[in-house]
Amino acid sequence: MSARDLIQEALHSLEANKGRSLLTILGIVIGIASVIAMTSLIGGIQNSLVNSLGLNAARMVQIYSSQELTESDIEKLQKLLPQIEQIGIVDSAYTEYKTGDKSYTVMAQGVDSDMLDAVGASKLVAGRTYSQAESQSGSRVALISRGGADQLYGNEQDAVGKTIKVSNGEVQIVGVIDGGSDSMGSLTLYMPRETIAGLFGDENPSFPSVTALAAEGTDMDELCKAIESKVRAMKGIEEEDDEYDSVSAASMKSAIDALNSFMGAFSLIMGAVASISLLVGGIGIMNMMLTNVTERIREIGIRRALGASRRDITAQFLAESSALCVTGGLLGVLIGYLLAWGLAMFASGSGILGELGASGQITPSFSIATVLLAFAVSVGIGVIFGFYPARRAAKLNPVECLRYQ
């Protein structure tokens, strides 16, 4: 039989038993849809969490020294290590902001304009960033993350131009940035360091840290070791000193790698659980094909009498089981796509990202490789679970088949 004849026969068989075929492929549809939906949703959450850290998160290094680093130390460190693209002090201070009956914990980050890129706060959604002149003069301007803008004003555009009371003064929001780690009830503001000093003063001291941005292609582990070595040499801190006199440099890359590993493992587990439906669907297909063989024994005998070989009979029933799985795979991919978007919209609306320390919308991450793999598995199930019924049909004695009533 030609491939065209096999396809026509398979489709005709499915059409003759529409209800039974639909119920049979239900397991395949559920399995494929579950795999596509869960892996896409988990991938979307993973991307949102990584994006909330900023575009340059993987190149960021946080430097800590028990002996505070000065501006002079920082300049010297950048000269000694050309792998460092940007480096500077970032001040942090905390306060509370109340509006109506709601209260928010505000983390104010003191970042000069030339360091916004280094801390991942340079990707604008609305408005503008503050200038170098505003940084030097300590202008009371600030950037707010998208999550914070959504919490306070409902959208990004309405946030621009608004003022927020911070400590003993107010700052004007001049821009909204993509990213940030705002959860429900907390806000992150970026403003010049001079502004932080003017607003908080001595009563609420800031907590300075040093942040560096590595050049593209830099080995982050080696850079962290080099930074620790140089800072120890500058400050006269021995490597074997105790924890109260120490130096450390930590890269965000290790945290991102750990997050990716965790989410990848979680996605694999969820995909494995969802794949159980595929196994159930495969068993259902085998059961249906065995029933088909029993119902069509006389047809098999007639085909054999007219010259069909055992290979033709095997190919015919394999084509039918494969057609069932291909149909189920196509429906599963479509339903999985729609289900992933539905779950993403629900997760975004329920604030799941805020609970995880991120903000923004979840966009399902559809992988062509995953779709192709799921589809290939569905076809493989059709072949594997359809092979036994097909071979059983092919081995029937044609004489006995013709006598079968």
Report on this structure.
- This protein is α+β, with helices and mostly antiparallel strands.
- It has 14 helices and ten strands.
- Strands 1, 2, 3, 4, 5, 6, 7, 8, 9 and 10 form a ten-stranded mixed beta sheet that branches.
- Helix 1 packs across helix 11 and helix 3 (26-52) packs parallel to helix 11.
- The longest helix has 44 residues, at 252-295.
- It starts with a helix and ends with a helix.
- Write down the oligomeric state: single chain
| Biggest pleated-sheet summary | 10 strands, mixed
Broad shape: elongated
Counted up, domains total: 2
Count of runs of 4 or more consecutive helical residues: 14
SS elements, strand count: 10
Give me the strand/helix succession.
Answer: HHHEHEEEHEHEEEHEHEHHHHHH
Mean pLDDT: 78
Rg from Cα: 32 Å
Main attributes?
405 residues; alpha+beta; ten-stranded mixed beta sheet; 10 strands
Précis, in short:
The chain has helices at residues 3-16, 18-24, 26-52, 71-80, 132-137, 146-153, 193-200, 220-235, 252-295, 297-305, 310-350, 352-355, 368-394, 398-403; strands spanning 60-65, 84-99, 102-110, 124-127, 141-145, 163-166, 169-177, 186-191, 209-214, 247-251. With 405 residues, the chain is α+β, with helices and mostly antiparallel strands. The two termini are 26 Å apart.
List the helices and strands and how they pair.
Blueprint: H1 3-16, H2 18-24, H3 26-52, E1 60-65, H4 71-80, E2 84-99, E3 102-110, E4 124-127, H5 132-137, E5 141-145, H6 146-153, E6 163-166, E7 169-177, E8 186-191, H7 193-200, E9 209-214, H8 220-235, E10 247-251, H9 252-295, H10 297-305, H11 310-350, H12 352-355, H13 368-394, H14 398-403
Parallel strand pairs: 3-8, 5-7
Antiparallel strand pairs: 1-9, 1-10, 2-3, 2-9, 4-7, 5-8, 6-7
